[in-house]
Design brief:
- The chain has 4 helices and 26 strands.
- With 419 residues, it is an alpha+beta fold.
- It has 3 domains: 64 residues, Sandwich (Immunoglobulin-like), CATH 2.60.40.1120; 68 residues, Carboxypeptidase-like, regulatory domain (Immunoglobulin-like); 201 residues, paralog of FGE (formylglycine-generating enzyme), CATH 3.90.1580.
- The strands form 8 sheets. It has a 4-stranded antiparallel β-sheet, with no helix packed on it. The protein has a 4-stranded antiparallel β-sheet with strand order 10-9-12-13, with no helix packed on it.
- It is rod-shaped, with a radius of gyration of 59 Å.
């Protein structure tokens, strides 16, 4: 049997204790209790501000730019939609215009409207608009002394005058414009008007009547004057020879007579219904026969017209008047319009003389009683509208005192044929 030795364990423990004591004394030889070492504090936790995260740039596709170059202030339309105005530098920069073909319209003050197409590329596109400036134009302010005057400009377009109104013609290119003014019964007038840019040129068109009225030739020959079935002063019917002569197709008109009145100061016609007001005939009667003129007025007009034209104008004889009415037909508008003065003195028995060669009437008129007066009278022909159908005959004769006027009495002209 084996016996273990337990005396060695206490001795070992003692030796360990002595060794620890020696070590402690070496650290504190006085044997006193030293200061306690400072307690260690836990470090304070410092919170630092968190920096704002910077935005991360994303990849964005760049939109192509369209630059349109046009006059400053020009209105730009693309595909019929307004896209703005060109700036003072003449540029308009747009984005969002899809690639492809587009319609472009440009309008600017002082320029001609422009339209066309352009192609928008995938990249930036620059379009210079070839717009043209409007030419600086002028205008005409037209007036005319005769209502109804037609004024043709450069044989391209025309305007017609109205009484007392000014007609404006705009948009004319600078330079000489050819004007041609006309009206039936008046001499044509041609005027050169120099139109200046940005200015209005006033042009007054003055038409003068055809002082040579429309005439037609009545050939010489023999015809039967008078009527055996008519009144006593128309009998007997008998042949007479009349040389050729020119007679006016119609009676002297108000407008033609007015030139005589204005040129000479001759008293204008006066009357209740168809008379003039001052020196002017009633409105819209410029082309109607002048009435309320005496035989003496008619003779004064013939003298003035002869002096103006150098041709011999006078009143027709009764024989000339009746020959024209019987032989010319539709060219001669006579019966039923107005009574017309003739050159002859009136004698109810003159036909009985049977004068055959170019009769010019008696040398003196027979004393006639009319309107409670007696005196010599002048002949009239025509069967005026104030009488019945019975007087609407080529042979019908009438008379009136040479200083008297009536609402249905006027005159026409004969021009002697130069031999």
């Amino acid at each position: 049997m084996m016996i273990r030795n337990h005396t060695k364990r206490p001795l070992l423990l003692l030796l360990i204790a002595v060794a620890m004591t020696v070590c402690l004394m070496a650290q504190n030889p006085t044997g006193r209790e030293g200061p306690k070492p400072p307690e260690k504090k836990a470090p304070e936790k410092v919170t630092k501000p968190t920096p704002t995260p910077r935005p991360v740039a994303k990849s964005v596709p760049v939109s192509p730019k369209l630059t349109i170059i046009a006059p400053a202030g020009a209105l730009i339309e693309i595909d019929g939609r307004s896209r703005g105005f060109a700036g003072v530098d003449g540029n308009l920069i747009l984005t969002g215009v899809s690639a492809g073909d587009h319609q472009l319209n440009v309008r600017a003050e002082g320029y001609e409207p422009w339209q066309g197409q352009f192609r928008m590329d995938a990249g930036s596109t620059r379009v210079e608009v070839p717009i043209k400036k409007k030419p600086v134009t002028g205008r005409l302010a037209l007036t005319a002394n005769e209502p109804g005057t037609e004024i043709v400009i450069d044989e391209k377009y025309s305007v017609k005058s109205l009484a007392g109104q000014t007609m404006y013609v705009d948009g004319l290119l600078p330079g000489e414009r050819q004007l041609r003014a006309s009206k039936p019964g008046f001499k044509e007038v041609r005027i050169v008007a120099n139109v200046l840019p940005g200015e209005t040129l006033a042009v007054n068109v003055v038409l003068k009547p055809l002082l040579d009225p429309e005439m037609f030739r009545v050939p010489e020959g023999t015809f039967i004057i008078g009527s055996d079935r008519g009144a006593r002063d128309q009998r007997p019917a008998h042949p007479v020879f009349v040389p050729d002569f020119d007679i006016s197709a119609r009676e002297v008109t108000n407008s033609l007579y007015k030139y005589f009145v204005d040129a000479t100061g001759h008293p204008p016609p006066r009357g209740v219904n168809f008379g003039w007001i001052g020196n002017n005939f009633p409105p819209e009667r410029d082309d109607q026969p002048v009435v309320f003129v005496s035989w003496e007025d008619a003779m004064a007009f013939c003298k003035w017209l002869s002096d103006q034209t150098g041709k011999k104008y006078r009143l027709p004889t009764e024989a000339e008047w009746e020959k024209a009415a019987r032989t010319v037909g539709e060219q001669f508008t006579s019966i039923g319009s107005i009574w017309e003065w003739c050159q002859d003195w009136y004698d109810p028995d003159y036909h009985r003389s049977r004068e055959r060669l170019n009769p010019k009437g008696p040398t003196r008129g027979k004393t006639m009683k009319l309107l409670n007066r007696e005196g010599e009278a002048r002949s009239m022909r025509g069967g005026g509208f104030g009488r019945g159908q019975v007087v609407l005959r080529a042979a019908e004769r009438n008379f009136y005192y040479p200083t008297y006027t009536r609402f249905d009495v006027g005159f026409r002209l004969v021009r002697e044929v130069e031999k």
